[in-house]
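Researcher: Structure for this, please.
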Amino acid sequence: MKRFEFSLNKLMGYKQQVLDREKNNLAHLRRQQQQYIDEKRALEEKLRNSNKEFCLKSAQGMTIMQVNVFKGYHQSLSAQIKELEASIQTMETKVQRQLSVVIEATKEVSSLEKLEGKQLEEYNFKAAKAEEQFIAEYVTNSTYRN
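Model: Predicted structure, token format:
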């Protein structure tokens, strides 16, 4: 009997490639989202440090010009943080969308793997039956010869 070969092997290979590509896209989106989160944290740390510095300098006495510089810097940092928050939210939406694509691709590959398992079981069953029949014929033929 010829060896087992899954009838939809090429399709399964293609679906696996699609799944791998979609997983890579998901990983890229998650890295990008994490990068935005890290940038936001860094800006928040800058803002906290600048606030501390402002409090120290204002206790010592500052000119109006220095206050305006701090105020402008804080507004700039706050605006950048808000932009990053929006980017993070957008990335979260993209990640969720891509995650659903990956889940669908995984389901397709999984269903093909289950089908392959069933075909392999059927193949093994037929092979066992053919072996049994061969043995039965061999025993029958050897009985007639003796």
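Researcher: Any notable elements?
Model: The CA atoms of residues 32 and 91 lie 8 Å apart. Residues 64-145 form the longest helix (82 residues).
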